[in-house]
Model the fold of this input.
Amino acid sequence: MALYYIGIKTSKRLLKEPETGMGYQIIDYRQSQLVIFNATIAIPLEELRAKSFTENDYTLLSGNPDKEAGKSERIDINDEILIISLLQGTQMQTDTYGLSFSESVVEPPESIISSKVPHAYYRYSAYYRDKRVDSRTGNYSPGTFATTSADMHFVPSGFAAVGRYALPNPASAKYVFHLVTYDKPNLMGTAAPNFGQSGGGVEVLFKDGATNKPGASYGISAG
Done:
């Protein structure tokens, strides 16, 4: 499997761009597509579909890939970065990239998610350090995906998260980043089936990021 380690400058560029889904970005790059995990590791989309992963590959696809950085080829992207978004409903054609796009995307109204009370969100990752979550504050950076507190009850394990949110990274998404915030997500939709995974989980996108409120409580069903 051709895995490339993203250089620091490129990683910083990618973190200024929105995600394609929870924990990953798909970009158009020189007439092909790259799938990039946590702004750290890149795999050509066509190779990812072949699923020819080795045991050594999994050391880069989970945990702390920085320890193994010297074993993989570095890549720096100086071209213009175009992010492929899957949470755009019918605005994009399914056959453009051989991917499925969610058609159940809405901007959640105040009656569904009120900005007057805090809500909890969860983010799953195969990496113990998520570059889109501030390690000091827990804030989410702009363009970050997560799921709702209601949907996380359907995710009993890291591999269940891979299936429910149709994540391209085959490694277990066993690391969870919890956020309690008054900030409302801009978009909410259902993860479409992709990468051999069923999807069906609820995803939300914070286009402007979200501020964590440590110590704040949030409501759940009384019964």
Observations:
- The longest helix spans residues 8-15.
- The chain has a mean pLDDT of 89.
- Residues 119-206 form one domain.
